[in-house]
Amino acid sequence: MTKALYITTTLPYVNADPHIGFALEIVRADIYARYRRSLGDDVFFNTGTDEHGQKIYQRARDEGKDPQGHVDEYAAKFRALKEPLGLSEDLHFIRTTDAHHKKAAQEMWRRCEKDIYKKKYKGLYCVGDEMFLKENDLVNGRCPNHPNLMPEEIEEENYFFKLSTYQPRLEKYLSEEGVILPGWRRDEALAFVRSGLEDLSVSREKARLPWGIPVPGDDMQVMYVWFDALTNYISTLGWPEDENGNFKKYWENGEVMQIAGKDQIRFQSIIWQAMLMSAEIKNTDRVLYNGFITSGGQKMSKSIGNVIDPIAIVQEYGTDALRYFLARHVSPFEDTDVTMEKFKEVYNADLANGLGNLAARVMTMAAQYLSEPIDISNTREMPDVTKPTEIFQFNRALDSIWSYISDLDELIQEQKPFEVVKTNKIQAQKQLKYLVTELGRIAKNLQWFTPTTSEKILHAIQENKKPENLFPRKE
Hints:
alpha/beta; Rossmann fold; Isoleucyl-tRNA Synthetase, Domain 1; four-stranded antiparallel β-sheet
């Protein structure tokens, strides 16, 4: 029976070029979306850009640009990731400056208005996270997510959302198995909620920050960027009007899944879920949290000079090489250190000398010794691939495939069909038919991870010819 799945990434904040951390998030989402489509499920896949807030306003002002022009420039860069990252054709892309999203954010405010009040407030504010901090949030007097930024002390009159009211309901929601993956992240969220929630500032004075969505009924205030941005998860479905029925189909009646970085737990699984409760909208079914990609043992930073550009990798190594690396050699849930030296080593060992070499060897012999293509339409699935994929352990799925690639290489060396054909052509052809069938099986099970490579191998089998050099070795 067909199921409706809604899957979304977070919306990257458009104050910098796309980085490999977001590439990880969206490639993982794409792999899972492709997997679920292969099961016959109806998938709505969403991403986009978060375009309001103080950081963007300051960046545009520092560069002498109009904020809208600034976000237009960066939004185009993120939208352009679709081709180089090999993302699904039907990927939806929402911008928080879209007219419909602005109306939806204001409607979300109205539906939560019973839990919103105005008061004067003084506190430490992290521009990096765009939120006020409590004393127990600080590490050495700074925000743990942005230790290079000194929190600013700000005093102003803002609107506040009664987050504390929803502590019991959030505890109940977060106590359900599966609402957060991995499980220990759910434990973190529960511990944070149980430590006591404070009400959340959900607006900023327009005089200080004019770049935002106006608060309904108060032109002197704009919405807090997170209150605005989080609403994208339903505005992209056409909420609240829902003229095409997507909100009802995918959110209300479907399976709702979000993918985010581990630093997003407070926003995605606490603040957003409380907003949904207040607005009387179904909560997210589950949120998957990635670890961070570090480089050379340090968090990526332009000032350090260790930022890895995913587009540069694609230009040198190809789309599927990046997708493969992110799926197999980056931990599903823990932090992973990545360097270009490691990437090149993996590329040559696993792709050039592994899959690429196997496909070339098998299909060269097939083209030479088989008179017609092998029918691989009835090849079996690999349960050691599908089962881990279902629980987002893409590394284990690909471990199984590469183990089988190694087995086939050994089989070729043992059976030597390239020698057997000289004395027993029928036996050699039998061996080759098996090898081609199993190569096809590998290609089919790679379709979610490396779709272009999968297609090239399957096409070569269909044409009974050697494919182009899939992964040229890098010296």
